[in-house]
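Q: Here's a chain of 305 amino acids. Please give me its 3D structure as tokens.
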Amino acid sequence: MLNMTILSNTESEHSKLARDADWSLYSPPLIAQSDLGFPNQTFFDQLCFETTPRAWPAPTDWQRFRLGIQFERLWQCALGHLKGYELLASNLQVQGPANTLGEFDLIVRQGHNLEHWELAVKFYLGTGDPTQTGAWFGPNPTDRLDLKLQRLLSHQMALSTTPAGQNLLTSQFGDSQASVKAIVKGRLFHPFAAWLDQQWCYPASVAKDHLRGWWLTDADFIRRFQTSSKRFRPLSKMNWLSDIPQVPADQRWTAGSCLAALSSTREQYAHHVAMLDDNGFETSRGFVVMAPWLAVTQASSAQER
């Protein structure tokens, strides 16, 4: 049975949360299209703390960790301390005449300007023609980059332009006009051969300096690393953001041991792992994908054709 410690013996919860917060704010964006509201790296580089948070918010239950929620909470905390920004509201629901239209992730004041921010942290694996947004699938293969971008642009980011959204902004903040930002962080995982050769092909909407990783099928993972000296560490979702600290020697696993542990879990689609150097430090990240993931992605790609 897969058994991973929540925090290493040498790492406190505070230091982990601080590392994740730093990654959430300053890591390269996954999507960077300033003309559409996706800020580029310059925006993040210019973020400056006026005061240092005493403590970053921790999940209420590490065992039921929700990556997207934690990403949002770290940003909410940061906006209470960033110079020039004021967090006015978070997860503010917009009610239509008959139902809830959606919610604003964040309403922010910058100077005299009202801003509507949408947040997302995403991880996609490339298949087929990697220049197409429809060729990038999440670890849960029903999640796809083109579908996420479409929802962001046509629904989430458009919420502040709807009559109901503008009425809410006016009643709550005295201004119906809010500029829109979509902050999307994460990684793209390229097929292992392309990653190894640094043959980066990706959609035009993806930031050039996006964080990268690799992916292999379970069979190819064993075939490539079964007799290798490389060691690996499975990554639970709580470790998907910032790099992990040095892994103790007894927790550095061979490819065979790693896959055996992963196969015993309930996850059927894709498993996140870190590749380690001889001293137990992370050198890269990848996904080991199982047969059901391949079946779903191949069927989806066939339908698109």
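Q: Can you summarize the key feature?
A: Strands lie at 85-95, 100-110, 113-126, 136-137, 179-191, 211-217, 231-234, 270-276, 282-289.
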